[in-house]
Amino acid sequence: MPGGAGEPPTDGALCRAFLAGDAQAFGELVRRHEELLLRVLRRYASTLDETRDLVQRAFLQAFQAARRALPRLAREADEVPFKPWLLRIAINLGKNHLRDTSRWATVPVDAAEGRRGEGASAQELLERAEQEAAVRKAVLFLPRRQREVFTLRIDGALPFAEVAQALGITEGNAKTHFHHAVKRLKEETRKP
């Protein structure tokens, strides 16, 4: 597999290796980005299993389109922008899923996996659950672009430059959308 002495290969190097016939290179891309897609796509699914299904479908779509799209992307940039391309596929898949099911995620992934505040009192757990529900509901009503930026920034833990690249907007535009999303969420979830 490509890579310098002791350094992991870049996404671009893995993409080039995959295009040259190394099937393991795509498997490494999947391992590298699976957790990111889980964090991002959880907002578009109602269960952990549904989220995992969306992640699997995103990688399948990327795999099917890779031989056609990656050479074009490589010509347009010095380094193959695999992660933004993959995120664009995942977000579009998530939006289509939402549209098709007319649902929004009602359970955070942590709660679905049973990792809720061990040692917290019942009152603290109730307050936290109410706050999480209020935030989920408020995120649902964010304008589309604000919701996408917020999801990539918070759930995906991406820097603004990568958020902008994934959505095809400027970094300043991503920061503005994020600022407005946070401001709106604070207003919507403020306790009376």
Descriptive report:
With 192 residues, the chain is mostly helical. The chain folds into two domains: 10-104, Rna Polymerase Sigma Factor, Chain: A (Orthogonal Bundle); 121-192, Winged helix-like DNA-binding domain superfamily/Winged helix DNA-binding domain (Arc Repressor Mutant, subunit A), CATH 1.10.10.10. Helices cover 72% and strands 0% of the residues. The protein contains nine helices and no strands. It has helices at 11-19, 23-41, 48-76, 82-101, 109-112, 122-140, 144-155, 160-167, 171-189. Helix 7 crosses helix 8. The chain is globular and about 55 Å long. Residues 103-107 and 112-117 have low confidence and may be disordered.
Name the structural class: mainly alpha
What would the average pLDDT be, to the nearest integer? Answer: 82
Number of domains as seen in the coordinates: 2
The CATH class label of the largest domain is Mainly Alpha
Determine the number of helices (DSSP H or I, runs of at least 4 residues): 9
Strand content: under 5%
Order of helices and strands: HHHHHHHHH
CATH superfamily of the largest domain: RNA polymerase sigma factor, region 2, helix turn helix motif
Biggest beta sheet attributes: none
Evaluate the radius of gyration. Answer: 18 Å
Give the CATH topology of the largest domain.
Rna Polymerase Sigma Factor, Chain: A
Shape from CA axes?
A: globular
CATH architecture of the largest domain: Orthogonal Bundle
Low-pLDDT sequence parts:
103-107, 112-117
Number of strands: 0
Q: How far apart lie the N and C ends? A: 57 Å
Share of helical residues: over 70%
